[in-house]
């Protein structure tokens, strides 16, 4: 397996391999597995899945896992980041199960490299996808525990707009490529990238400040995923859900984006997370941003403390 890896854009400590998939309605498809180069033996690994309008770039996160004895892997899903091809519309899926093949292939590589325990981790939309995979995915038996960082478990929309969104989602089966106007948010992205107001550096063409537009096929896929979440997943593995302690209330730009979730409603996570399974731990991170691992340092440190304390209990040292 090691011979399949190639150099990665994150530098000499990282490498990647392309995971070919069957073509879909847009043509050829692949996903991309990234790993931090292992420097010592480990019996545990983590596979991380990014969110919407996103890809894996968080070197610090990989290093934290490495320091705690986990070999680190991340997956750029089809049509995101390293896996996005010129003939594809970014983020474009019509059913979240399309991502299951990407996870199957990534977990097959991780299993072949030999670990007694594998943590599956997802942020935001990646949290929604990984939670559903842990319940339904073909390779779910390889997953020992699940960590969700601000998972996208429900739409954060005013009541009237939510009703309109559900009406549009119902169109997904009939006109999936229709683009939804007015969905290109910028304020959260401004809070992250150092060319704007944030402290992080990443490839803006893959994670633009003005998010990629979405179509009704994607919205329909998300709505169906949310219906399955509301029914409850009944997971038997340990699950950790971390989220910010409050949601941004400001309209337009505000410093509040540095201290609260500027994308999702934390009350939705508090309400829905317990239904994910029978061993679910839910914790709020004071001053956390939407991606807790990109928050300001005090909140980021709290998130890592919660995560590794939970892992020590759930998977052992």
Automatic annotation (TrEMBL):
Name under which the protein is recorded: Lysophospholipase, alpha-beta hydrolase superfamily
Domain called Serine aminopeptidase S33: residue spans: 42-292
Matching PANTHER family: PHOSPHOLIPASE-RELATED (PTHR11614)
Keyword terms of this UniProt record: Hydrolase
Presence of keyword Hydrolase: yes
Sample GO molecular function, one term: hydrolase activity
Protein species of origin: Hymenobacter arizonensis (Siccationidurans arizonensis)
């Amino acid at each position: 397996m090691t011979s399949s890896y190639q150099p990665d854009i994150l530098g000499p400590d990282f490498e990647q391999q392309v995971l070919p998939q069957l073509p879909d309605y847009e043509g050829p498809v692949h996903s991309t597995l990234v790993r931090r180069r292992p420097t010592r033996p480990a019996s545990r690994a983590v596979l991380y899945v990014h969110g919407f309008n996103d890809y894996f770039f968080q070197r610090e996160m990989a290093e934290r896992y490495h320091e705690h004895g986990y070999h680190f892997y991340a997956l750029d899903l089809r049509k995101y980041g390293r896996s996005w091809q010129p003939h594809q519309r970014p983020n474009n899926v019509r059913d979240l199960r399309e991502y299951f093949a990407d996870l199957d292939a990534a977990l097959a590589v991780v299993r072949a490299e030999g670990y007694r325990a594998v943590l599956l981790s997802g942020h935001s939309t990646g949290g929604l996808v990984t939670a559903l995979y842990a319940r339904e995915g073909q390779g779910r038996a390889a997953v020992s525990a699940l960590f969700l960082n601000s998972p996208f478990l429900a739409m954060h929309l005013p009541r009237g707009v939510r009703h309109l969104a559900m009406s549009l989602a119902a169109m997904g089966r009939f006109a999936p490529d229709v683009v939804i106007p007015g969905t290109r948010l910028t304020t959260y992205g401004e809070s992250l990238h150092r060319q704007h107001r944030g402290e992080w550096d990443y490839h803006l063409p893959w994670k633009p400040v003005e998010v990629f537009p979405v179509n009704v096929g994607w919205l329909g896929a998300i709505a169906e995923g949310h219906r399955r979440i509301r029914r409850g997943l009944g997971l038997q593995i340990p699950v950790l859900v971390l989220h910010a302690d409050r949601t941004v209330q400001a309209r337009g730009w505000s410093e509040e984006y540095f201290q609260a979730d500027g994308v999702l409603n934390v009350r939705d996570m508090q309400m829905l997370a317990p239904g994910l399974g029978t061993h679910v731990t839910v914790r709020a991170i004071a001053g956390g941003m939407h991606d807790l691992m990109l928050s300001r340092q005090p909140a980021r440190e709290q998130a890592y403390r919660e995560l590794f304390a939970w892992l020590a209990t759930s998977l052992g040292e």
